[in-house]
Amino acid sequence: MSTFPQSLNPVRGGFVLIDLATGKPKTIPFQYNPDTLTRTLQPQGIGNEPGDRLEALRLKGPPHETYKFDAEFDAAAEPERFPDGLFPLLCALERSISPTYDQLWSENDDAGKGLLEIAPAEAPLTVLVLGPRRVVPVRITEFSVTEEAFDASLNPIRAKVSVGVRVLTVDDLGYVHKGGGLYLTHLQQKERFAAAVDHPVTDVGVPRI
């Protein structure tokens, strides 16, 4: 677990679940920021075959980006925040990948009425916050919980949550969707930071073209 001197007042990462019907957010902050985080980017190219010289440098769209990390929680360290152990917090995280009770009953009612096309239930928009410079819409693709200690009622009081997410882009959500707008803002911010390390090619030993 990451620990910090109190004087540093670290910014906690976490998830924000946004109900798209009401716009109401539910914030689930990490108790401890992850010690490590793995990011993988896979470019979307057009020229996938070797020797396809006309398309070799073209980009079809934003890269497919994934994050993997572990989030650790200890109810004993903050009993005022976790009076019922970690079970409510774990349920809130699982909410982002599960239809609700009402949604399941609604689908069942539609099926009973003989409706042939039933729209799948829509999950809340999940936003991963990793500090003020990385706020991205995501879909949770992996979710594994290791419960390590329990109270007398078998509520977990210490747990490690291993999470894998895929960043949602305008290819997934469109340009007018709230999540699409978040992705475009994130992309603009990355471009600003990338511009800050722009040096003349002679400084890095690259020959002029």
Percent strand equals 25-35%
Structural class label:
alpha+beta
The strands making up the biggest β-sheet line up spatially as 2-1-5-6-7-4-3
Distance between the termini: 48 Å
Give the % helix. 10-25%
**CA radius of gyration:** 22 Å
Number of strands: 7
Apparent shape: globular
Indicate the low-confidence ranges by residue numbers. Answer: 1-9
Task: Explain what you see.
- 21% of the residues lie in helices and 33% in strands.
- By secondary structure, the protein is of the alpha+beta class.
- The protein has a seven-stranded antiparallel β-sheet with strand order 2-1-5-6-7-4-3.
- The radius of gyration is 22 Å and the shape is globular.
- The termini are far apart.
- Mean pLDDT is 85; it is low at 1-9.
Short description:
The chain is of the alpha+beta class and about 210 residues long. It has a domain of about 150 residues.
